[in-house]
């Protein structure tokens, strides 16, 4: 097991070293840098003109990039730039020539550059990479809870986490806005973690990150594949399911041990790809799994289940509803088993684990009205959430509040409308990151599919008002689900993100009146 910690020194490299690195990896097209320019030291690297200092090597990338960003970066101290094309900087009238490095694939180039800039500091960490259509955040936080229980016993710093909920690396503790950070940020997090003597880092690896090489070159001690279902298919994401699936399978090119869920769709193909790894640990509710879960039982908001492996046969408990969370817990047990984490820490960690904005249960003062704030927002999670609710609350009616995002995963409007209509008694359709599409148009598209079922359907565009009404209308025989945003505190309107209270805050406010 890795046990590194200690000081990290960013070795300062010359521009020539980066040119050589790009050339060696077949990415260099041409460069204007020559002679002493190649010896200039790269003191900082940035792809954001608002984050530039003297001696910065500036990266020009992105669909929204404009030459104005580069000009601004040069004014702030950037001394050279990397790009897929040359830019005309003549109007800047700089005293010195600004060398360019032209590459044929900026996204791959960024991964190599970031890796070199931070001296492959990730090698000092035990990295856990988790991918899948659903359950990435939950499993990542289950892992954090297990690792932190173990590290507490060892009197060592808590583990780091990079997730769609938060990023924590020992230095930075922030709400995150991407599932997997952009390349330079990713390596900066690794660097901060090592500087903070952190030994373990669990992170979500999105299909977008894999497709666009955000994690290229990084090697995971354990990589985990949770499941695969149709999602993220749109112009801005993946062109089809195959592209989405293949992107996710890339994880196995970069891990030592693979943990694979035998209950996933396409499990044979996943296993076949996983066989490239040195070791494969399987998990699932099937006896042939290395980590085999059975005897699942619910009691209140807790779930207990038995797990058998070649070295133990033990009962585990999670204190979160949602039967699908057993699969996430089995994933965490499989990863912990691969990492040789003691059983007592796995059990204790899972018992304590809570995941922000996922299956958070709130009740009124008299404890007879349940409102669950959850993050379900695609077909797989809606199906698992409703089937689980029907089993966990067999005699209750279901009210749900949700919406769909603009210009993303367009099939969700039909799929979620249909599933919600099928299982609910009342559906409230509302705002959920409509972005650049008209909100009412999205709501009406969802409503069309809800109304195919015998279910009440209300469109209330204001999310706060939709949650208020759903709770106000609910009687004691109803469970209210508020899904899709968890504890997020912003809404995408147009191209901007507007700060808002979270669903949890709304729910707590309106439950006071019940
Ligand atoms: C707006 C947009 O579509 N951005 C996507 C795009 O980023 P990009 O490299 O083209 O950059 P950009 O956003 O166009 O920005 C242009 C550049 O100008 C710079 N800039 C900007 C303003 C300024 O004043 N100065 C300046 O220098 C910015 O720093 C940036 O470098 O290409 C990237 C390829 O990796 C995408 O990740 C990224 O997705 C945005 C951020 C996004 O929200 N993507 C979603 C779909 C995503 O990645 N989601 C996954 C989870 C989904 C899953 O499970 O697959 C995730 O990992 O979060
Ligand atoms: N293993 C699972 N199978 C099916 N649904 C799940 C599973 N785990 C969680 N869910 C549902 O999906 C929602 C999101 O869970 P989580 O945030 O853990 O997944 P994620 O993969 O990180 O999602 P996203 O990519 O949207 O951030 C949960 O709130 C729950 O409704």
Automatic annotation (TrEMBL):
<keyword id="KW-0131">Cell cycle</keyword>
<dbReference type="GO" id="GO:0009252">
    <property type="term" value="P:peptidoglycan biosynthetic process"/>
</dbReference>
<dbReference type="InterPro" id="IPR036615">
    <property type="entry name" value="Mur_ligase_C_dom_sf"/>
</dbReference>
<feature type="domain" description="Mur ligase central">
    <location>
        <begin position="130"/>
        <end position="335"/>
    </location>
</feature>
<dbReference type="GO" id="GO:0005524">
    <property type="term" value="F:ATP binding"/>
</dbReference>
<dbReference type="GO" id="GO:0005737">
    <property type="term" value="C:cytoplasm"/>
</dbReference>
<keyword id="KW-0573">Peptidoglycan synthesis</keyword>
<comment type="pathway">
    <text>Cell wall biogenesis; peptidoglycan biosynthesis.</text>
</comment>
<keyword id="KW-0132">Cell division</keyword>
<dbReference type="InterPro" id="IPR004101">
    <property type="entry name" value="Mur_ligase_C"/>
</dbReference>
<dbReference type="InterPro" id="IPR035911">
    <property type="entry name" value="MurE/MurF_N"/>
</dbReference>
<feature type="binding site">
    <location>
        <position position="49"/>
    </location>
    <ligand>
        <name>UDP-N-acetyl-alpha-D-muramoyl-L-alanyl-D-glutamate</name>
    </ligand>
</feature>
<keyword id="KW-0133">Cell shape</keyword>
<dbReference type="GO" id="GO:0008360">
    <property type="term" value="P:regulation of cell shape"/>
</dbReference>
<keyword id="KW-0436">Ligase</keyword>
<feature type="binding site">
    <location>
        <begin position="132"/>
        <end position="138"/>
    </location>
    <ligand>
        <name>ATP</name>
    </ligand>
</feature>
<dbReference type="InterPro" id="IPR036565">
    <property type="entry name" value="Mur-like_cat_sf"/>
</dbReference>
<dbReference type="GO" id="GO:0071555">
    <property type="term" value="P:cell wall organization"/>
</dbReference>
<feature type="binding site">
    <location>
        <position position="214"/>
    </location>
    <ligand>
        <name>UDP-N-acetyl-alpha-D-muramoyl-L-alanyl-D-glutamate</name>
    </ligand>
</feature>
<protein>
    <recommendedName>
        <fullName>UDP-N-acetylmuramyl-tripeptide synthetase</fullName>
        <ecNumber>6.3.2.-</ecNumber>
    </recommendedName>
</protein>
<keyword id="KW-0961">Cell wall biogenesis/degradation</keyword>
<dbReference type="GO" id="GO:0051301">
    <property type="term" value="P:cell division"/>
</dbReference>
<keyword id="KW-0460">Magnesium</keyword>
<dbReference type="InterPro" id="IPR013221">
    <property type="entry name" value="Mur_ligase_cen"/>
</dbReference>
<dbReference type="Pfam" id="PF08245">
    <property type="entry name" value="Mur_ligase_M"/>
</dbReference>
<dbReference type="GO" id="GO:0000287">
    <property type="term" value="F:magnesium ion binding"/>
</dbReference>
<keyword id="KW-0547">Nucleotide-binding</keyword>
<comment type="similarity">
    <text>Belongs to the MurCDEF family. MurE subfamily.</text>
</comment>
<keyword id="KW-0963">Cytoplasm</keyword>
<feature type="binding site">
    <location>
        <position position="206"/>
    </location>
    <ligand>
        <name>UDP-N-acetyl-alpha-D-muramoyl-L-alanyl-D-glutamate</name>
    </ligand>
</feature>
<feature type="binding site">
    <location>
        <begin position="179"/>
        <end position="180"/>
    </location>
    <ligand>
        <name>UDP-N-acetyl-alpha-D-muramoyl-L-alanyl-D-glutamate</name>
    </ligand>
</feature>
<feature type="modified residue" description="N6-carboxylysine">
    <location>
        <position position="248"/>
    </location>
</feature>
<dbReference type="GO" id="GO:0016881">
    <property type="term" value="F:acid-amino acid ligase activity"/>
</dbReference>
<dbReference type="InterPro" id="IPR005761">
    <property type="entry name" value="UDP-N-AcMur-Glu-dNH2Pim_ligase"/>
</dbReference>
<keyword id="KW-0067">ATP-binding</keyword>
<comment type="function">
    <text>Catalyzes the addition of an amino acid to the nucleotide precursor UDP-N-acetylmuramoyl-L-alanyl-D-glutamate (UMAG) in the biosynthesis of bacterial cell-wall peptidoglycan.</text>
</comment>
<feature type="domain" description="Mur ligase C-terminal">
    <location>
        <begin position="357"/>
        <end position="486"/>
    </location>
</feature>
<dbReference type="Pfam" id="PF02875">
    <property type="entry name" value="Mur_ligase_C"/>
</dbReference>
């Amino acid at each position: 097991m890795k046990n590194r910690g200690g000081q990290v020194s960013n070795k300062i490299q010359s521009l020539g070293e980066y040119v050589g690195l790009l050339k060696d990896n077949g990415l260099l097209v041409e460069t204007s840098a020559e002679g002493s320019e190649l010896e200039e030291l790269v003191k900082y690297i940035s792809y954001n003109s608002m984050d530039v200092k003297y001696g910065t090597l500036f990266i020009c990338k992105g669909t929204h990039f404009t030459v104005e960003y580069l000009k601004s970066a040069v004014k702030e101290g950037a001394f050279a730039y990397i790009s897929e094309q040359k830019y005309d900087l003549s109007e800047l009238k700089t005293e010195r020539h600004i060398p360019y490095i032209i590459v044929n694939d900026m996204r791959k180039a960024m991964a190599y550059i970031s890796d070199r800039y931070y001296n492959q500091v990730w090698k000092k960490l035990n990295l856990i990479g988790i991918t899948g259509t659903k359950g990435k955040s939950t499993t990542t936080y289950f892992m954090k809870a297990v690792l932190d229980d173990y590290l507490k016993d060892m009197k060592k710093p808590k583990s780091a986490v990079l997730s769609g909920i938060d990023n924590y690396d020992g230095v930075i503790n922030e709400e995150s806005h991407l599932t997997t950070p952009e390349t330079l940020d990713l390596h900066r997090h690794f660097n901060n973690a090592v500087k903070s003597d952190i030994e373990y880092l669990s992170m979500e690896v999105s299909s977008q990150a894999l497709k666009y090489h955000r994690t290229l070159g990084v090697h995971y001690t354990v990589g985990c594949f949770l499941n695969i279902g149709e999602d993220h298919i749109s112009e801005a994401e993946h062109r089809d399911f195959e592209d989405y699936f293949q992107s996710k399978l890339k994880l196995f090119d970069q891990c030592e041990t693979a943990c694979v869920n035998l209950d996933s769709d396409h499990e044979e193909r996943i296993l076949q790809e996983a066989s490239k790894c040195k070791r494969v640990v399987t998990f699932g509710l099937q006896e042939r799994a290395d980590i085999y879960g059975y005897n699942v039982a619910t009691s209140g908001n807790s779930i207990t289940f038995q797990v058998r492996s070649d070295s133990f046969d033990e009962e585990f408990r999670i204190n979160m509803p949602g039967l699908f969370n057993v699969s996430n817990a089995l994933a965490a047990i499989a990863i912990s088993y691969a990492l040789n984490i003691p059983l007592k820490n796995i059990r204790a960690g899972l018992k304590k684990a809570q995941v922000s904005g996922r299956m958070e249960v709130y009740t009124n003062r008299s404890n007879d009205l349940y409102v669950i704030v959850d993050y379900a927002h695609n077909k797989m999670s809606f199906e698992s959430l409703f089937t689980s609710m029907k089993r966990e609350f067999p005699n209750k009616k279901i009210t749900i509040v949700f919406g769909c995002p603009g210009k993303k995963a367009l099939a969700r409007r039909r799929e979620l409308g249909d599933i919600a209509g099928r299982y609910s008694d009342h559906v409230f359709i509302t705002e959920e990151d409509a972005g650049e599409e008209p909100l009412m148009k999205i709501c009406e598209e969802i409503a069309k599919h809800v109304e195919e079922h015998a279910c009440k359907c209300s469109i209330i565009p204001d999310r706060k008002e939709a949650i208020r009404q759903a709770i106000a209308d609910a009687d004691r025989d109803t469970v209210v689900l508020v899904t899709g945003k968890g504890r997020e505190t912003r809404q995408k309107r147009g191209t901007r993100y507007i700060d808002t209270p979270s669903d949890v805050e709304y729910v707590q406010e309106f439950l006071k009146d019940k």
